[in-house]
Amino acid sequence: MGETRVDLLHLLEDLRDAYAGSLEETILTEIVANSLDSGARRIDITSDATSRTLTITDDGTGMKRGEVRRYHDVASSAKTRGQGIGFAGVGIKLALLSCHWVYTESRRGKVHVATRWHLASRHRAPWKWVPPEGLAPERGTAIRFELTNALSPLLDPGFLEVALRWHYLPLFEPLFEPLLRDHYPHGVRITVNGRALEATERAAREQATLEVRIGRKRKPSALGYLVRDVVPLPEDQRGVAISTLGKIIRRGWDWLGITPATQDSIGGAIEIPALAECLTLNKADFIRSGPRGMTYLAYRKAIQNAVSNQLAAWGDARDAAEETRRRITRPVERDLERVLIDLADDFPMLGTLVEHREGGQRRLPIGGQALDYARGLVAATIAASAVSAVATEGAQLADTNGGSAATALDETAAAEPQPSAEAMIPSAPGPKRAARYGLSIEFETRSSDPEIARLIESTVWVNDAHPAFRRAVLSRSEGYHLALAVAMALAPLAVEPAHQHRFVTTFLARWGQALETGGRKRRG
């Protein structure tokens, strides 16, 4: 009789590599995520450099004896997809890679149990029941592990605080409290070595509040803010961060597909609880295919509208030259949509950008635990918040309405709401057609980069500093250059390196055919 053997060490290393951050960051943030999923109101973190131990306790629901037993199965999880931000208790499982042992204690009702666990070899991670030490509160879970490295960042309280504020920024921002109250009705209090992590004030000179509403709902489905300063922000604060249930998933400008004129001086964050349903399996990114992917992309479009409106109010929108360039790219984008629809059958990896459906595009699921399919509009409205004025040697800063200047530090002027920006959700039934998943063309200047374009999210960023692009502009052949740039940017996604030349030639051939057929509808 055969026996199935699992290389646990290799499996854990693969899990570690699935996260962009360091192992220590992943361990900490994932343990906290599972505490939040358990309904914890308080999470206490204690590091002891002398004993090289880290202890994390919460007052969540705790675990039953059977759940504690399954908790030691690396491939097991009791979580329901779309209802949390933690992944299969992976934080403490990854801790096996960097510690001598893991002690887990859980209390739920009359059940009070504890275990001790360690990685003995590549194929064995034995655990055993041990008497509880009384670390867990009246209800909840406590975890303690001894690190192998005496210099591990997990033993540094400063690292713990910075990592928590970085990954769970909305939990420390009062702005997001009304939106997170439905999921965390009693709030969440986090302490590090006995000191509570309090909210921090934003020091940027200008601030604006963003609101995204779904259909005609009065309550915002997403809240956020943008900040702008006259000097560049710290690198970790630039761009827009998107979070769900308090956990930051993406950061920067690339994922949003918008680049302001002064991108180094603008930052912000947006919280969307409904996007918990769109998280990938490891909760480190968002799905971009199927109904869940359509939900994410629709919210992304609404956020783009909201951010673009605020950037325009600040004077950081595209200039006239960029608008002219956009008029050139729009016809190319329409042709590319037909090309991608044709190529999706031959190159399945392009299915992340285009998906075929019988009977037309399904209605977009927005919100609700049952992923209710609802037709409507995504209305992104901006309520510009008060603009802070900082006086430096008589300099005056006008408010976001362009009205009177604010000259006192303690005076703020409430700006008028900006016009709503609407993003239509495709939902009407009809003949078989493909849903376009938002492939767009944007421009960026990278003078030292030999590549003519790159693909980020669903945006092809064309390098307008490339000599070939400048030659195309002078010869008025921007359309062909854009088609070639898109083909080369999509090739690594669509095929293996050995077949990229074939993909580019096929792409250009289909692009030429789309130009010949014009706007005529396909039959079949």
Give short descriptive properties of this protein.
7-stranded mixed sheet, 23% strand, 524 residues, disordered C terminus, 11 helices, alpha+beta, 8-stranded mixed sheet, 27% helix, Heat Shock Protein 90
Describe the structure.
The chain is α+β, with helices and mostly antiparallel strands and 524 residues long. The strands form 6 sheets. It has an 8-stranded mixed beta sheet with strand order 5-4-3-6-2-1-7-8, covered by helices on one side. Strands 12-11-13-10-9-15-20 form a 7-stranded mixed beta sheet, with helices on one face. A 3-stranded mixed beta sheet has the order 22-24-23. It has a domain at 8-166: Heat Shock Protein 90. It has helices spanning 8-17, 23-37, 65-71, 90-94, 157-167, 177-180, 290-314, 320-343, 467-474, 478-494, 500-517; strands at 42-48, 53-58, 99-108, 111-117, 127-129, 140-147, 189-192, 195-196, 206-214, 222-228, 239-244, 247-250, 266-271, 354-357, 377-383, 387-388, 397-398, 405-406, 412-413, 421-424, 433-436, 440-444, 453-456, 459-463. The chain has 11 helices and 24 strands. The model is unreliable at 356-437 and 519-524 (pLDDT under 50). Helix content is 27%, strand content 23%. This is ATP-binding protein. It comes from Eiseniibacteriota bacterium. Pfam families: HATPase_c_3.
